Each structure stands twice: as structure tokens, then as C-alpha cells.
Amino acid sequence: MFARAALDALVIMSQVGPPLRSPLLSDDMHWTLEELIGAFRCSFVPVQVLVVDDDVTSRAATRRTLEHLGYSVIVAEQSAGALRLLEGSHTPIDLLVAEVGMPEMSGPGLAQALREWFPSLPVVFVSADFADRHRCGDIAPPVWFVPKPFLPAELIAAVHGALGVPHGPAVPQHAL
């Protein structure tokens, strides 16, 4: 098990259960271990992942893979729809998984827009065109790239890498 700070929360990752997010903590709080355990017992919410992909098959497979791991997944077909969804709901996002080449607004464009709200948002880009990984170079880390078609283990490795989960599956990873 390990913990990392994520925006306004603490994220607890475990090899056994789903990743959990505690909104109770902030940088200026000092907690004893007993206080943390007590707070976490009643405050865990799953890590929120936003998946944006204009390919329905890829979007559904990504959603199934992440939900199977215990992540809370929000899906959108296009970047503009994802932005409207988040503006209306004020949902905190812990990770973005996005197709690079989408009409209207690309995955990198969406990542830049979301980082206005979530400055350190980790990003995993996916694309059937491996050359698209170079279109993602202007996005500040943490950024990962997974070429399509991908195996669930490849997506999981990139998601864990982007979230900073140690000991992910041993598959090729493409950090940018």
C-alpha cells in the first residue's frame, strides 16, 4: 500500500483493493497515524478517471478495464462534451485517459484545458498512430502514451505509472 498527494486529497493505492481518494486532507494538516486511519474509514471515495475517446469500442474496453480495478470512471465521446460534463458537475478528476486525435479538440488540447482546473492532473494518451506520441510532448508530466490496439495490462501499466503506483505489471511503458 502506498499514498500520494493528488490535488486536494490523499490517494491510497493498494495491490489488494481499489485505489481510494480521501478529500479530508490538505497540505497544512498534520495527522497522527491513528487520526488518519479513523478519517479514512469514513472518507474513502474511488479515484476518478475521465476517459475521452471517440471510438466506442476503445472507450468501452477502457471503461471496463478501469472499473474492474475499482476506479470510478466517467466517459465522454468528445473533448467538448467532457468539458461540459465537468463544468456542470464540479467532479474532481484524478486521471485523464484520452485519445490523441479527436475532432474539434485533441486529447492534448483537452489535457491543457483540464489542467487549468487540475494543475497536476496525470494523463494517459492513447492512439492507433504511434507517431501521435510526439503530439503530446508539450504537455507537462506526468504523461503516458499507450498505442492502440492495447492489451488491458498495457493500459493498466500506464495508468499505474501515471498515478505513481509502484510495482505495476511488467509490460512496455511509454512515459513521455
Q: Give the CATH superfamily.
A: Response regulator
The H/E string reads EEEHEEHEHEHEEHE
Largest sheet: 6 strands, mixed
User: Residue-averaged pLDDT, rounded?
Assistant: 78
Total helices: the number is 5
Instruction: Report the oligomer.
Output: single chain
- Give the % helix: 25-40%
Question: What's the architecture in CATH terms?
Answer: 3-Layer(aba) Sandwich
At the third CATH level, what is the topology name?
A: Rossmann fold
Task: Characterise this structure.
The protein has 176 residues and is of the alpha/beta class. It has one domain (47-175): Rossmann fold (3-Layer(aba) Sandwich). Helix content is 32%, strand content 24%. The chain is built from 5 helices and 10 strands, in the order E-E-E-H-E-E-H-E-H-E-H-E-E-H-E. It has helices spanning 33-41, 56-68, 79-89, 107-117, 152-163; strands at residues 2-6, 9-13, 20-22, 45-46, 48-52, 72-76, 95-99, 123-127, 143-147, 174-175. Strands 6-5-7-8-9-10 form a 6-stranded mixed beta sheet, with helices on both faces. Strands 1-2-3-4 form a 4-stranded antiparallel beta sheet, with no helix packed on it. The model is unreliable at 168-173 (pLDDT under 50).
